[in-house]
Design brief:
Elements: H1 3-6, E1 11-14, H2 21-51, H3 58-86, E2 91-93, H4 94-127, H5 132-135, H6 138-164, E3 173-174, H7 181-187, H8 193-226, H9 231-259, H10 268-292, H11 295-310
Parallel strand pairs: 1-3
Antiparallel strand pairs: 1-2
Helix pairs in contact: 2-3, 2-10, 2-11, 3-4, 3-10, 4-6, 4-8, 4-9, 6-8, 8-9, 9-10
């Protein structure tokens, strides 16, 4: 008997961010604004990088890939949440729920490794500037991005495969605004010990591997920066890395508070708050952080706007 036939539940009910009726409309407009900002920011970042020859460098290639991941990650979660604010029918089909889990995991895991790849890129740029174009060749950059997405796909397939084997024969109410693996474990009639162990083990390995890559990269970067005698040179190097460090701290902080602890030890409100950060807020913040703190992106955008105005 296939895993799908073992499940007696054919749909789930998403309770959403809150059950208070008076907050549904304000929250709808709030998250609609966040999603519009996320979409415009990330797709705009990709467009600016693609259209500006001066941004055709490894750093901006990784940044455009991060923007793609952020846009997709937000699009997997937010549209369904927005519908839930307006509609009384908060159901999601079994297949829709497992599909959302699969794509959510692909992009959240890929973001971990993309941030690590970006840290390595900054390490090579600052510590080995003369060899930068050789080490970070277009082929190497393409392979790194492909590897990042492949790891995300593989890990998501493992976790989603485990969820498909679970039986759901009791309550179908998910006390969340999206199909989160931990929420599904709580509804399962069968044992989730192996699945929770896999999330903790694979998630822990991913976070340790990527965070160590980032920490080691920045340790060498800091050592190289401190050796720079020019105050202007040190300031430029710090500015190059500060945006990435800010994005890393926000993303990893919210993700670790959610998954690297037993599901029974955290409150529902705390889970929802941390989930809002890495599913909706961070995809919106990343393009703002990298554009507002980056003179090259701002200059490229101004050039494109002036070029468009001159054609009219």
């Amino acid at each position: 008997m296939g895993p799908r036939n073992r499940s007696m539940v054919t749909e789930f009910l998403l309770l959403g961010l809150t059950e208070r009726p008076e907050l549904q409309l304000p929250l709808f407009f709030l998250f609609l604004g966040i999603y519009v900002t996320t979409t415009v920011g990330n797709l705009g970042m990709i467009a600016v990088i693609r259209l500006s020859a001066q941004l055709h460098t490894p750093m901006y290639y990784f940044l455009s890939s991060l923007s793609f991941i952020d846009f997709c990650s937000s699009s997997v979660i937010v549209p369904k949440m927005l519908v839930g604010f307006l509609c009384e029918d908060k159901s999601i089909s079994y297949s829709g729920c497992t599909t959302q889990v699969f794509f959510f995991l692909i992009f959240v895991i890929s973001e971990c490794f993309m941030l690590a790849a970006m840290a390595y890129d900054r390490y090579v740029a600052i510590c080995s500037p003369l060899l930068y174009n050789v080490i970070m060749s277009p082929r190497v950059c393409s392979l790194l991005v492909a590897a990042v997405l492949s790891v995300g796909f593989f890990d998501a397939a493992v976790h989603s495969g485990g969820i498909l084997k679970l039986s759901f024969c009791g309550s179908n109410i998910i006390k969340h605004y999206f199909c989160d693996p931990v929420s599904l474990f709580r509804l399962s009639c069968s044992s989730t010990y192996i699945d929770e162990l896999l999330i903790f083990a694979i998630g822990g390995f991913n976070m340790v591997t990527t965070s160590l890559t980032i920490i080691i990269s920045y340790a060498f970067i800091l050592r190289s920066i401190l050796r720079i005698h020019s105050k202007e040179g040190r300031s430029k190097a710090f500015n190059t890395c500060s945006s990435h460090l800010m994005a890393v701290l926000i993303f990893y902080g919210s993700l670790m508070s959610k998954y690297l602890k037993p599901s029974s030890s955290s409150s529902l409100v705390q889970e929802k708050v941390s989930s809002v950060f890495y599913t909706t807020v961070i995809p919106m913040l990343n393009p703002l952080i990298y554009s507002l703190r980056n003179k090259e992106v701002k200059n490229a955008l101004m050039k494109l706007l002036r070029r468009k105005m001159s054609l009219r």
